[in-house]
Design a protein that fits this description.
Chain A has helices spanning 19-25, 106-117, 138-150, 165-168, 189-210, 224-233, 248-262, 296-299, 303-325, 330-345, 395-414, 416-419; strands at 40-43, 45-48, 96-101, 127-132, 156-162, 174-177, 216-219, 243-245, 269-270, 273-275, 283-285, 290-291, 294-295, 354-359, 372-378, 386-387. Chain A is an alpha/beta fold. Chains A, B: Keywords: Chloroplast, Disulfide bond, NADP, Oxidoreductase, Plastid, Transit peptide.
Chain lengths: 438, 438
């Protein structure tokens, strides 16, 4: 990470370690490993700050060699030590870098604490959180970092905040892209595709330049399928299959609605697929879904409800929540992101699957190639996934899938200028934004 | 729970189970156990509602025997089944009831999902969440319950929402009392003590009447020490030592500040006590605290910083966060509530302790009896705790402790009318509300 110039803002005193103290600590220090708590910002000239001691006066910090890795931290946040040297931590896995965009927003405010607590990647997986915000949200990012510090999570070994994706995505092994512009008054879906598409084109380029070559990317910011497509097209050096668009909240809501209708607890519902776009053309699949292992259509015999009400119930959930709660569903969205990650890092239970919006190339369902489409997947728990073979289709399902496929192809034509495929031409006949996601 | 009258609001269809479906399910049903997902409201006349299917038209529900336990649920939320009959759940512990007040607020919005995920009470502890809100927040409570449903937590077996503590606290084994009125413009601490004191007097009476006889109560709503005192005085049939005032966020912040100053990771800091009131008179104790097992005063030799800056840094953290983040610290407060619960349900690590605001009767430190005062505690992990014996005092620490003790005695005199000890008389010389907790 090239940091051209280091000047200290007003909030970081240097470490006041003395030689008498170092004797307690030296056994733990090891310069091979960079496991520090540091926070980075680059605004025009690069600056470094930490989230703590905000009452302290400005302190001058020595400019360091911009090429050295240690140049982006100092003082108390630049401790280098070796987890292998401590009894409690020596059996831990290697630290992983998790980048999160929109990190000052409400979804992230739930998600980051879940990631840091160990409930996502396990109790032996130390993590570094790299938080991407905007100039406007930078102070809020500092607040988030302060709260993460006050939470004393043993597994959270590094926090970095910044507004430049080329810095924040450095060596990222996971990129959770939550940040996106919300739709303003009078803005059409085509405008939103263009505005957010530009953000995801830039982030794709940044991932391509600096992230781990096997980074897993989960796009949450809407319109997430086409944003994911733009992102992967701008990151040709990263496998296209590593990019996901989040449809897991839709899957979870579909399971809940099927459980409610059948009068069973939701843990009895399995094999639910969300097909296609994260929009109102999405297809929650009740043909292949099961309840207690039995096809849903045998359990829920009210097929009229399945065909005419079920999909709407899933889709209107977000809008109903906003009406009730006055805010969009940040907490359950964060839970569904956790579910999506866990589905990739733990083996899928025998006979079941999960939904994810992924690149269609090589899919066995006849979905047109070259788009990001939610489909049923299984994982061995290695971060990768494969398509499920044993799904069936009927005319109802095929017709619905064709419609959402057509929409994604139209969205793709809209953003051709962002995927390097010519001039964008937008012909989106209707507004298919999900209620509650404006 | 006496429910005088049942009328259905507009949102709950009855279960549409058919006999053909019941064959799949009957093996799992068992009327001995009441493990359903139901939501309750009592507004003047009792009403029952569920959080789901809010697009459905009004449905009439049969009035049931108000004395039967099943009277507070119906339809799909009234499933009764036996966790012991299922392979996945038969080794689970008995369901516990956790009541949370202020359940529609931001702290709860973080906390409830942590409780439901299993990270607090463990992966084999099914839980029932009983959510207390107000008439005004009732719709938001429904939204929270909907998000909990959409999260598909396997351990979350019951959700009930309501505005009457006598219903919501029924059989509660934990009561997390987060809700309190915030201080309005021009309101003095004495006013706040009175207004919130009335809430906690009522909740104490309700706990006394309907909660488990060994309920553990954690008071978070401010002024939390005196609120906890009022609560326990109104609940004479529950052991006074079961009541806690949350000072864990202060402890966590103190650990973080000591770590930052010493240049160590925060997991090296132990034996930190917060003494006294959750206010600016609180005493973060650096005399007994340790870093890597060594007394802090030997590690941090800048004793002027310890005596003059450390306490302020801990106390100003909340205000600094509001400035940065624009909101109060809901996420890290929720983490500290989780820490406080875990400290009671897991054995305290050898040689360490945790802080909690507890009833002073029988304390070995010479603190005056009859108040709620934060002190160092240890637990065997059974929900109970004992005072730590091996702490030392010096003049600096004793002087500070005397001041916070005097404040709590003054607060106690303020609320004498709420604790059954005469006429309240308020003489609070200064505003000791912590920054960021207005």
């Amino acid at each position: 990470m090239a940091v051209a110039e280091l000047t200290a803002p007003s909030i970081c005193p240097k470490s006041n370690l003395r030689s008498s103290q170092l004797s307690y600590l030296s056994a733990r220090f090891n310069s091979r490993r960079h496991q520090s708590f540091h926070l980075l910002r680059r605004v025009r000239s690069a600056r470094i700050s930490c989230s703590v001691n905000s009452q302290s006066p400005p302190v001058a910090v020595k400019t360091q060699d911009p090429k050295s890795k240690s140049s982006d931290c100092y003082g108390v946040f630049c401790l280098t030590y070796d987890l292998k040297a401590e009894d409690e931590t020596k059996s831990w896995k290697k630290l992983i870098n998790i980048a999160v965009s929109g990190a000052a927003g409400m979804i992230s405010n739930h998600l980051l604490f879940k990631l840091a607590s160990g409930q996502v990647f396990g109790p032996d997986q130390p993590i570094a959180l790299k938080l991407l915000g905007s100039e406007k949200s930078f102070q809020a990012l500092e607040g988030v970092a302060m709260e993460l510090e006050d939470s004393l999570f043993p597994l959270l070994r590094e926090v970095k905040i910044g507004i430049d994706p080329y810095e924040v995505f450095q060596d990222a092994e996971w990129a959770l892209l939550i940040g996106a512009k919300p739709r303003g008054p009078g803005m059409e879906r085509a405008d939103l595709l263009d505005i957010n598409g530009q953000i995801f084109a830039e982030q794709g380029k940044a991932l391509n330049a600096v992230a781990s070559r096997n980074v897993k990317v989960i796009v949450v910011g809407n319109p997430c399928n086409t944003n994911a497509l733009i992102c992967l097209k701008n990151a040709p050096n990263i496998p296209a299959k590593n990019f996901h668009a989040l449809t897991r909240l839709d899957e979870n809501r579909a399971k809940c609605q099927l459980a409610l209708k059948a009068g069973v607890f939701y843990d009895k519902v399995s094999n639910v697929t969300i097909w296609g776009n994260h929009s109102t053309t999405q297809v929650p699949d009740f043909l292949n879904a099961r309840i207690n292992g039995v096809p849903v259509k045998q359990v829920i015999t009210d097929h009229k409800w399945l065909e005419e009400e079920f999909t709407e119930k899933v889709q209107k959930r977000g809008g109903a929540l906003i009406q009730k709660w006055g805010r969009s569903s940040a907490a359950s969205t964060a839970v569904s992101i956790v579910d999506a990650i866990k589905s990739l890092v733990t083996p899928t239970p025998e006979g079941d699957w999960f939904s994810s919006g992924v690149y269609t190339n090589g899919n066995p369902y006849g979905i047109v190639e070259g788009i990001v489409f939610s489909m049923p997947c299984r994982s061995k728990g290695d971060g990768d996934y494969e398509f499920v073979k044993d799904v069936t289709f009927d005319n109802y399902l095929l017709k619905k899938i064709t419609k959402t496929e057509a929409e994604l192809l139209a969205e793709k034509r809209c953003v051709a200028h962002l995927t390097g495929e010519g001039i964008g031409f937008c012909d989106l006949p209707e507004d298919t934004m999900l209620p509650g996601e404006m």
